[in-house]
Amino acid sequence: MDTPLREPTFLILTALAGEPLHGYAIIGEVTTLSQGRLSLRPGTLYGALDRLVDAGMVEVHRVEVVDGRLRRYYRLSPAGDTTLSEETDRLRRNVEAATARLRDRSRSPRAVPRTVGGVA
Questions:
Q1: Hey, which residues does 72 pair with through a beta bridge?
Q2: 31, 59, 76, 110: which could form a disulfide with 80 (CB 3.0–4.6 Å)?
């Protein structure tokens, strides 16, 4: 799987880092983790889960029958754990670099823009 991860993929892997979850629980976790900014539709989620399973990052943990319907629980695979850890480290380094730049900028006097032309 390519890195950097898209935000929905990152949040799906993050949701599964805690414990195995079924699809609608993953949707709820992603909404919570994104503080409501991202709300996955079932078709989008299951397409992403299929790709993550194919990539070896997510595994089917178990299958239950609930109200006559199959409910699959997914978990993070060792490869998914590694990818999520690496992506988390990459994002952390980016945040640290941006934070340092913003902190340095706020400490130094701002350059005054030069006017074009002469003074009247």
A1: 63
A2: 76
Q: Give the DSSP H/E element, type plus range, for residue 31.
A: helix 23-33
Coil/strand/helix, residue 21: strand
pLDDT tens track for 61-92: 999 998 999 999 999 999 999 999 999 999 99
92 assigned to some structural domain: yes
The parent domain of residue 56 ranges over 7-103
pTM: 0.83
- Residue 30 CA to residue 105 CA, distance in Å, equals 34
CATH number of the domain that residue 67 is part of: 1.10.10.10
Total structural domains within the chain: 1
- DSSP string covering 48-104, please? HHHHHHHTTSEEEEEEEEETTEEEEEEEE-HHHHHHHHHHHHHHHHHHHHHHHHHHH
Count other C-beta atoms under 10 Å from residue 84's C-beta. 20
22 inside domain: yes
Sign of CA dihedral 101, 105, 106, 107: positive
